[in-house]
Amino acid sequence: MTMALLEARGLTVSYGGLYANDSIDLDCEEGKLVGLIGPNGAGKTTFIDAITGFTPISSGRVVFDGKELEGLGPDARANLGLTRTFQSLELFEDLSVRDNLMAAAERPKWHSFITDILFPGRNERQYVEQVERAMAMMRISDLADKMPSDLSHGQRKLISVARALAAKPKLVLLDEPAAGLDTAESQLLGRHLREFLGDGISLFLIDHDMGLVLNVCDYIYVLDFGRVIAHGT
């Protein structure tokens, strides 16, 4: 039996007697766009926090690309190819759009300094290519030299998604990327998301925009009071 790219089994996050996530079983298949919907307070963001290592899991297990994630911090999980966006737009306000993406793309390894000595500029070229590719995918190349403060809310949202893509991930967890976008911007975002799947990137989407979720997702999970109450195409 083939494993999914991401598998959560019995994932539980509790705070005292409160269960934010209660025995969640969920799969993200490679090359698919999986959605998670539910009312405010259902535990959707907590699930992403748990998967990406920002919140400790009380019980259960998570496997990503065949590797158990228990004990790994957010940085180690990101290095495996598991990246995310946040509801709040955590952009570096004193960096240009291009440099915001570069900060996410640069992931030096222990042997990077050797590569720099033997092949000067190779690492830098790789990161630049990743950043340019991410901007092109989100159609924001014309904003590369602008500062975040000069951009609209919708543009900042697109940059947040592009920054996650700049890390060349295997799976991107998107936490309400359409929040605050108008209908046209949301539809544009949806078209971009489907394009990513053809570029070797799988997606997991949380959003309250039902039009977006129902139009772009291959499979959807419904969460309420921390439990999966329905799932299907």
Q: Can you give me a brief rundown of this structure?
A:
This protein is an alpha/beta fold. The chain is 35% helix and 25% strand. The strands form two sheets. It has a six-stranded mixed sheet with strand order 6-7-8-3-9-10, sandwiched between helices.
Question: How would you portray this structure in words?
Answer:
The protein is an alpha/beta fold. It contains eight helices and ten strands. The strands form two sheets. The chain has a six-stranded mixed beta sheet with strand order 6-7-8-3-9-10, sandwiched between helices. Strands 2-1-4-5 form a four-stranded antiparallel beta sheet, with helices on one face. The chain is globular and about 50 Å long. The model is unreliable at 108-119 (pLDDT under 50).
Q: On the 0-100 scale, what is the average pLDDT?
A: 86
The largest sheet is: 6 strands, mixed
Number of strands: 10
The number of helical runs is 8
| Structural class based on helices, strands and sheet pairing | alpha/beta
Unreliable segments of 5+ consecutive residues: 108-119
Overall body shape: globular
Helical residue percent band: 25-40%
**Distance, first to last CA:** 21 Å
N-to-C order of helices and strands: EEEHEEHEHHHHEHEHEE
Rg, Å, rounded: 18 Å
Residues in β-strands, percent: 25-35%
Strand order of the largest sheet: 6-7-8-3-9-10
